[in-house]
Write a structure and sequence with these properties.
Layout (H helix, E strand, L loop, with lengths): L19 H13 L5 H31 L4 H31 L8 H17 L5 H19 L2 E4 L2 E4 H7 L5 H39 L5 H8 L6 H30 L22 H15 L1 H12 L3 E2 L9 E7 L4 E7 L4 H21 L12 H14 L11 H34 L5 H14 L11 H5 L6 H5 L5 H19 L1 H13 L6 H7 L8 H15 L1
Helix pairs in contact: 1-3, 2-3, 3-4, 3-5, 5-7, 6-7, 7-8, 9-14, 9-21, 10-11, 12-13, 13-18, 14-15, 14-18, 14-21, 18-19, 19-20
Protein name: M3 family oligoendopeptidase
Cofactor: Zn(2+)
Keywords: Hydrolase, Metal-binding, Metalloprotease, Protease, Zinc
Length: 563
């Protein structure tokens, strides 16, 4: 692995953020500005946007600094200061800003095509705001931090040595079944060691979130979060979606499992056999080779994609080094003041690492294209159903470029099949995750045993339906603990499946006309965010459709492609 020095100047610092009195004075001055005309209202919104971008970028930078090096005490203290001191102050004043705009008689005269989404989001935020929830949100962040630190320091025993968690993750797809099983069991053993702590963290988060919902006037957190996220579909739509996946996709998943079992020539299809497990090695040896190959894949797909990635590399906007003390997983965060994007990834050399980076590049490209649209800049509201469309699509648009990472023709074919196999998994697994969260938050007083039993039941109904888990029930029942989404991003899962449906439609178009599919990808990513999700999907050349008919057609398409 090449040496890596993490940059310190990739984001713009906000000097007055460190002085809470000066910060509050700045916010008070913005709040006190008089608005007597439409032009003054728009000028006020621009001033607010400038302050918001400045503060958001600095706080995002502090969080990235902490997640990149959770052993650094000063970085942790800065992050905790932001959460415990700055965020409560911002929450209070942002609510006052919302009140100012929602109550102003001129707000209704703003151009809906530019300010419509902003107006709807503000009304929702104002509806949900209550001062009693501010300290609860602080406590929520403290528990999330505790979880991240646990996972960031997690080690796995491997042949008598302690290895980073990311190392074992990379072995789960190994071509040697013995090594796959060893890695899978080593990961489970590592999580069993921290199982009590994670249970306690989840208990506290569920109770905090339930109280937040009660304080805001809701019966439970599930009902609260649907309003909080401004979802354009109902709870019942999600329940119907879960049922459609069980009806149409799980049988297809079962058929695929039988094919994989035959290919692997094994008597029993076990949890460590879910991947195709046919690739014999990692698609890169070191960080530079990894980045070079991804850059080439992007450039050969579209010049703009490659240029943006080159720009990010040159500006130090990537941290993909695998090291201990760094948070697990991968993400892409926008830096609104600098109008940049930052990609974080922590995986050992593997197929998963390659695809995870491409996924995050999709988010970055989407962010850059949004910035080219003036409408995108008015307190842009992040909708995961839209964001994930462009990250999942980027994975599939590069399907035919996997030969750059896998020069051997047979290895490349295995990698392409694995990507399609994971695309099908992404239509199923998020629905089981969504169902589990519906249960957890509508049964907030459940026990650890009940939680584990429910998770096991759901897994057996979906992703593990064709898998022999005999003797592994206790390990499977705590599988949720390895996903940060349950802890840090509640009810952010079903959006992956929705977006994957759109991405597969775009892949189908790409196979018929690559240039048109790329053009529509970029057109949709630039589109006016004040439109509905369905309208933005349409401008991307796909349909926002998770009906039973759509799922059935998609299952047939994936099976056809895999054959």
């Amino acid at each position: 692995m090449t040496s890596f020095t993490f940059p310190t100047d990739y984001y713009q610092e906000c000097t007055y953020l460190q002085d809470s009195q000066q910060l509050e004075k700045t916010l008070q001055e913005v709040l006190a500005i008089e608005i007597n005309s439409i032009s003054e209202l728009e000028a006020w919104l621009q001033t607010e946007q400038y302050i918001y971008d400045e503060i958001t970028e600095a706080m995002t930078g502090h969080q990235i600094d902490f997640l990149c090096d959770m052993t650094n005490l000063s970085k942790q203290q800065q992050y905790e200061y932001d959460q415990q001191v700055v965020q409560p102050l911002l929450t209070t004043y942002y609510a006052l800003f919302d009140q100012k705009i929602c109550d102003h008689p001129l707000t209704s005269q703003l151009n809906d095509s530019k300010y419509g989404l902003m107006r709807r989001v503000r009304q929702t935020q104002l509806q949900l705001f209550c001062t009693e929830n501010i300290p609860l949100v602080i406590q929520e962040q403290e528990h999330i931090t505790a979880y991240r630190q646990l996972i960031g320091h997690l080690t796995v025993e491997w042949e008598g040595e302690m290895k980073p968690y990311a190392f074992a993750q990379a072995q789960v797809d190994h071509g040697d079944r013995t090594i796959r099983e060893q890695a899978w069991r080593a990961i489970q053993q590592a999580f069993q060691q921290i199982e009590p702590q994670i249970h306690i963290i989840m208990d506290q988060l569920i109770q905090l979130r339930h109280q937040i919902a009660i304080n805001a006037g809701f019966a439970n957190y599930r009902d609260y979060i649907f309003v909080y996220k401004n979802r354009e579909y109902r709870i019942q739509d999600c329940l119907d979606y879960q049922q459609s996946v069980a009806t149409y996709l799980v049988p297809a998943w079962d058929r695929l499992a039988k094919v994989l079992q035959q290919q692997l020539a094994i008597e029993s299809y076990r949890p460590w056999d879910i991947g195709l497990c046919a690739m014999q090695g990692a698609p890169f040896e070191d960080q530079d080779q990894w980045l070079d190959r991804v850059e080439q894949m992007l450039s050969e797909t579209d010049t703009y994609f490659g240029e943006r990635f080159q720009h990010m590399r040159a500006k130090g906007l990537l941290d993909v080094d695998n090291r201990q003390g760094k948070s697990a997983g991968a993400f892409c965060d926008p830096l609104p003041r600098s109008q940049e994007s930052f990609i974080f990834s922590n995986f050992s050399p593997s197929f998963v690492a390659l695809i995870a980076l491409i996924h995050e590049v999709g988010h970055a490209i989407h962010n850059y294209l949004k910035l080219e649209s003036e409408e995108s800049m008015q307190l842009y509201h992040h909708r995961e159903e839209i964001a994930e469309l462009y990250s999942h699509s980027m994975e599939l648009l590069l399907l035919d470029k996997l030969s750059i990472a896998y020069a051997d023709e047979q290895e490349c074919r295995h990698a392409q099949r694995e990507l399609l196999h994971r695309a099908m998994m992404m239509l199923i697994k998020p629905l089981s995750s969504d169902q589990f969260q519906h249960w957890m938050y509508t049964h907030p007083n459940h026990t650890h045993a009940e939680r584990q039993a429910e998770y096991l039941r759901i897994c057996q109904s979906y992703i593990y339906h064709p898998v022999d888990i005999q003797g592994l029930e206790s390990e499977i029942s705590i599988g949720w603990m390895s996903s940060a989404h349950y802890i840090a991003y509640p009810f952010y899962n079903i959006e992956y499946a929705m977006a994957q449906l759109g991405a597969l439609q775009l892949l189908d178009k790409y196979q018929q006309n690559p240039s048109q599919a790329i053009s529509e990808y970029k057109q949709g990513a630039r589109s006016n965010p004040n439109q509905s999700i369905s309208q933005i999907y349409k401008q991307t050349g796909v349909q926002f459709d998770f009906s039973s008919t759509s799922l059935q057609q998609t299952a047939e398409m994936i099976e056809r492609l895999l054959k």
